[in-house]
Amino acid sequence: MGEDGASIPDEEWERFLREAEAGAQGAPEEPSARARMVARRLREEPGRPEGWRTHQPARRRRGKGWYAIGLLVAVGLLVVALDPGRAVGWFGGGGGGGGGESAPLAAESQRPDQPPATEAAAQLPTVEQPFRGSPAARWGDGTAGIGLPAARATGWMSEEQVAQALDRTRDFLAASSLDPGVLRGERPRKAIALINPHQQDVQDYLATAFRAPSRENDPRLLFSRFEKSKVRLVGNVVKTRGRITYREGKRGAVEVTTDVTYVYPVVRAAGKSDEVARTIARREVVMSWDDPAKVVIEPGTFSLVSYKADTTNGGCDAFTGYFTPEFNAERATGSGDGPEVDPYDRSKSMDSRMREAGEAGCGTATRS
């Protein structure tokens, strides 16, 4: 794909698309934007049953050790072909990664059965060791912390195509959550270019989210962005832990699910502050790689099925379009009115985390 993410450089993908189109039994279906509209109507009509794709972001207020949980759902049927250009490192000044506290963990291949240990939690992070006292000290750097399964022929795709889909899915995660420019607050143009323009409800969300961010249209649900005039990221490493899985979806599509936790250490942008705070974001993004014989697509784009986000110290009820981490002097006394949550605990599914949060206000993070 070119620098703007507008074309597919892979001749193999083009061949398969041409063959699929030639073998179509009927006209491909237009991607549907109806599901998101139905979800909104269900939320607005009291007493109606809630479907699995109709979750509403919970209201959050400021508290001590904040985490905010949000979910926004969009449904379509398109094909994915992500632009290579993985961005593992990111900008910052001074400071390294995990500080060499212990050997890195092997890639995550399945959900753990318990949270990580807390013995080192009392150790405060420093500019030189921004992940000190955190389980993330042993996590992978950038996309190295995101586990990939073995590829096998699935749905309409061959083994080789599935392997390519998995690699490019991981590339999308880098473009949305690890790219240096995006982390500095720039618009994530490369990542947005990968979402099919025919998925109109998603395109409307994206246009609104960056122009007028709100609870309903919050870009942080998909993208990691900081306001560079307020905070500066420390070092050149984002720690990650997570995995990518896949299965056959509707109409023979390959449905890929990503579940990744990202840890971002920051200091204040002004002055020479050396207090390190950490923003922790966990996202579950589901995308569909569809058969072009059955769905109207644009080359080089993918279908966004659903996305969920759970953020600690990213700004509670602060819908600015940026993560807004707070430091000790800025934190309100007392605790949040939501449940206590360990942001490093990956033993619970995102659905379980969302159910626990319910409609509570800001919860209390047990560690950062």
Instruction: Write down the overall mean pLDDT.
Output: 76
**Strand segment tally:** 10
Assembly type: single chain
Shape estimate:
globular
Radius of gyration: 20 Å
Which features characterize this protein?
globular, disordered N terminus, 368 residues, 7 helices
Written description of the protein model:
The protein is of the alpha+beta class and 368 residues long. It has one domain. The chain is 19% helix and 18% strand. The strands form two sheets. Strands 1, 2, 3, 4, 5, 6, 7 and 8 form an eight-stranded mixed beta sheet that branches. A two-stranded parallel sheet has the order 9-10. Strand 5 and strand 6 form a beta hairpin. The chain is globular.
Task: Sum this structure up briefly.
The chain is an alpha+beta fold.
Write the layout of secondary structure elements.
Layout: H1 11-22, H2 34-44, E1 67-72, E2 140-141, E3 146-147, H3 159-177, H4 180-183, H5 189-192, H6 200-211, E4 231-233, E5 239-248, E6 254-268, E7 277-289, E8 303-312, E9 340-341, H7 350-357, E10 364-365
Parallel strand pairs: 3-5, 9-10
Antiparallel strand pairs: 1-8, 2-5, 4-6, 5-6, 6-7, 7-8
